[in-house]
Each structure stands twice: as C-alpha cells, then as structure tokens.
Automatic annotation (TrEMBL):
Similarity annotation: Belongs to the peptidase S14 family.
GO BP terms, alphabetized: protein quality control for misfolded or incompletely synthesized proteins
Molecular function terms, GO-annotated: ATP-dependent peptidase activity; ATPase binding; serine-type endopeptidase activity
Pfam families found in the cross-reference section: CLP_protease
One GO CC term on file: endopeptidase Clp complex
PANTHER family named in the record: ATP-DEPENDENT CLP PROTEASE PROTEOLYTIC SUBUNIT (PTHR10381:SF70)
Organism, scientific name: Lactococcus hircilactis
The protein, known as: ATP-dependent Clp protease proteolytic subunit
Amino acid sequence: MKRKEILVKTLKFNGAVADNDDAEVYDWFGMECITPKKVNDFLNEANGEDVTIQINSGGGSVFAGSEIFTDLSKYQGKVTAEISGLCASAATFPILAADKVGISPIGQMMIHNVSSLAQGDYRDMSDAGKFLTGASNNLANLYAKKMNISVEDAQQMMDDETWFNAKQALESGMADEILFENNKQVKMVASISPILPQEKINQIKNMINKKTNDKKNSSLDNKFTSDQMESIKNMIDEKISEVKAEFEANNTAVKPPKNQKFKPLFLGGIK
C-alpha cells in the first residue's frame, strides 16, 4: 500500500516586503509583493497545520518584515522556510522565525545593516544614526543566535554586506539543508526586480485616490489624463534607467552588486 502523501500548505514569499497600505500600488502595477496581512491571512487559514514559506525576495520594509517575523514566531504549527531563489535583507526575517530552513542549490542569501534616508540638522542626523544602530543591533542579535556566533561577529558580517551561496548558508548555520541535492538537473534563471521607491508609491497612491474620489465610487478609473500618464511614465522610466545603469556598471557573474542594490530595500519601512 502506498504511503499517503502529506500536503503542506505553502506560501509564496515573492517580491518586495511591503507595508499593508502599499500593496495596492504594487498590485496596480502588476508587481509581486508580500505583506504582513498576506502572511497573517495565510497562517489563519492554515490554523496550526505545518506550513512552508517559499522565499524569493530581495527584501523591503523593516517594519513589515518585523511584523511577519513576529507572526511566524507565534505560530503554533511547524514553520519551514525554503529559499527558492534570493533571500536578502528583510526577506531573511522569516528564516529567523522558522523551525527549519532549506535553500536551493542555486539560491543565495544576503545580510546587511538597516539603512534609511534622513534630513534635518545635526540633532536629526544623530537621532537617525542612533535608530539605525539600534535596529541593526537587534538584527545582529538574531543572526548571531541563528549562526551560533558572537553578536560582534554577526554585526561585522552585516557591516561587510555578507552574501551566502547554498554551501556557505549551510556551513554558517543560516540554512539547515540544501534542497534537491540528489537531483541531477537544476534549471537556472536570473532577473532584476526593483522595489518601488517609497516616494513614488506615495505619489501614485495620491493619484489613484484622487481619481477614485473624483468618480465618487469604489472602482478605479484607469483613464488618467495625459499629464498624469506622462508623470507615471517618467517614474517608471527613471527607475528602469537607474537599474539598467547599475546593472551595466556592475555586470559580473562573480558577485552581485555591493550595497547599492539592496540597501534601499531596507529603507522602505523607515520613515
């Protein structure tokens, strides 16, 4: 008699880690994102059963990631994290809450410090520095526990912006196993998925809300004026140009671009 296969509920943790209020903008552009609400709804539906969180994300909002970490940590069932592609920045938070972590043979992980934008006088800059130091130290403590190393060593790895391939993730303790080790064939793909800048999200949300209010109903009128369409086009072109220029300047198969690509992924939640 065949053994009955146990189906585990799986959540695709893909795209930017975004705040709940920003999800509508990503949806409007047809871009993937993961929010605390999506994770919470998934866990409520799972109702204590074992779950798998399948991660392919470059990170995003620190505060959204923190909420997701908290919900996964409190969940009564077993949580398995599987890194199917990229697990960087705030997208590493679920693995810190998981009972078991697996990584694809061609998966990658990355940890670094929290970053943000700030303006004001020396007092504002000092306050921002204290906040970033505290937030990064919180993460260093969690990474240190995960890898069974000192907090100082974990903080140094964050300072250095440390990347792990599958073997390095396993050796460091960031992962517990490499998936599909017995498979002879593995298909590889590559892509660049930029996160929307917070200022652009806010601008577009204001435009969407204005159009909705003008129509006095709940449906979104997609017929923007020529000026509005030009504004949106410029936003998209600007982001595409930035990513293209960065990619061309750092085009290498040895190591992904340092700092520039993923530092902004943390600042989405710091306001």
